[in-house]
Amino acid sequence: MRQHTPAPGRPSGRPPGRIAVVGMGCRLPGDTDSPAALWRLLADGRDAVGEPPPERAALWAADPGTTLGTTPGPPPGATLGSAPGPVPGTTARPGAAPPVRGGYLRDVSGFDADFFGVSGREADILDPQHRLLLEVAWEALEHAGMPPDRLGSTATGVFAGLSYNDYMNRLDRHPRELEGSALANGHCVATGRISYLLGLHGPSVALDTACSSSLVAVHLAVQALRTGECDLALAGGVTLMFEPRITRSFDRMGMLSHTGHCHAFDAAADGFVRGEGCGIVVLKRLTDAVRDGDRVLAVLRGSAVNQDGHSDGLAAPSATAQRALYEEALGRAGVDPADVGMVEAHGTGTPVGDPVEFAGLAQVYGTGRDRCALASVKTNLGHLEPAAGVTGLIKAVLCLGRGLIPRNLHFTGWNPAIDAEGTRFFIPRELTPWPVRTGPRLAAVSSFGFSGTNAHVVLEQPPA
User: Pairing between strand 453-460 and 404-405?
Assistant: First the structure.
């Protein structure tokens, strides 16, 4: 196993450059517990969306005030500025049951507390999202060939996105359990616990920009590596569902699918299906990775983050902002958009969001000699919200390394609001060879938050 050997304490301060992805870890729906397992799921064209596991369904059924099937619609005239009415351009479903199909992890209760130095009492009230981050961060470092217990006193950063407090909300109904739960459930310590466990001295940042959180975390990690704040970085996100409150809210806003699938860019798109899981990537300056003999899985050429600003509504997407985002990331990467062979899109399968996203992509990536695949891993796993961006990134890294693009599920024909004629975009309907035949393989990944914060990353295949 290769060892990461930066000088202890302070970063090396080397000049900015390209960033290597040297390790990955994930726990995703469909018993997908590794990057290799994710590739098998994708290559097989499997849909991991289904009914909730029995223990999760029991939790939801026991939720006070919740009777699935009798959720009221929004008050007349409700908007995002008053009650949680529909997002502009979507339609609320008064009286309809909030959908329960999703991309679920089968077992989220198991945790080796002794291995991670967590006391039994603390482990009982520790947010399972924090547990997953610990486990997957460890696995990602092992995947990178870096023994986690040998990173103490190094300038290693940890950046993670997470949004919800479902578990702490459930503890609130048990006052004794709630005592002392701030350190076990507060998002601020989700990354701090990893840094504490491993003795890391780089930045440790937990953040929430909604659905773009984990890709924003990757961007911040890249910035920290390039400015010398750290020599190694873990970046990603996590999400789990333990109560129907957020699902009810999203459904009232008209955002969820009642067909039980994410039909990204398809005429049948009627919203997204929620998913859960965790993904972490290990990042290092490319020059350092080559020096240390690390296995490079992909090269992160450029990234950007921006904000929609004043759009049609707080949660409404902006094609103008998205186009500016793509151009900024491509400019930093020094990449011609016509050379990009795959865009792993935000692609949630909402009837309004998909056309807006396509319009921005077409303006930047839509012209060129070679075709470009447009895909979304949400069609396989559901929308992992704060963990969605890093999941798309892991998929893109796997595709770049193999020169293959998996089938995009649940697509029969373009959304009628999308004009794909004359663009180079196509939706892959089978395992497809890389469409751009010249130069190194290049891919882009998008993630947009209903907070209005957007992220975009440009990746290159690993060096020969």
Answer: unpaired
What lies within 8 Å, CB to CB, of 130 at 6+ separation is 184, 185, 189, 190, 193
Contact 125, 181 (CB under 8 A): yes
* C-alpha to C-alpha distance for 434 and 285, rounded to whole angstroms: 26
Query: Does the pTM exceed 0.85?
Result: yes
pLDDT in tens, the chain (464 residues): 455 554 433 444 333 489 999 999 999 999 999 999 999 999 999 999 999 998 888 877 776 545 443 333 333 333 222 233 444 545 555 545 678 899 999 888 889 999 998 888 888 889 999 999 999 999 999 999 999 999 999 999 999 999 998 887 777 666 655 566 667 778 889 999 999 999 999 999 999 999 999 999 999 999 999 999 999 999 999 999 998 889 999 999 999 999 999 999 999 999 999 999 999 999 999 999 999 999 999 999 999 999 999 877 777 888 999 999 999 999 999 999 999 999 999 999 999 999 999 999 999 999 999 999 999 999 999 999 999 999 999 999 999 999 999 999 999 999 999 999 999 999 999 999 999 989 999 999 999 999 999 999 999 999 98
Q: In this structure, is the dihedral angle defined by the CA atoms of residues 389, 151, 184 and 130, taken in order, positive or negative?
A: positive
At the top level of CATH, the class of 19-51+106-460 is: alpha beta
Quote the distance between the C-alpha of residue 210 and its chain's center: 10
Q: Where are the domains of the chain?
A: 19-51+106-460
DSSP string for residues in 264-331 = TTBTT---B-BB-EEEEEEEEEHHHHHHTTPPP-EEEEEEEEEE--S-SSTT---HHHHHHHHHHHHH
- The Cα–Cα gap between 381 and 386 comes to 14
Please spell the DSSP secondary structure of 402-436, one letter per residue: HTEEPPPSS-SSB-TT---TTSSEE---S-EE-S-
Q: How many alpha carbons lie under 13 Å from residue 403 in its C-beta half-sphere? A: 6
The residues that bridge with 232 in the sheet, in sequence order, are 156, 284
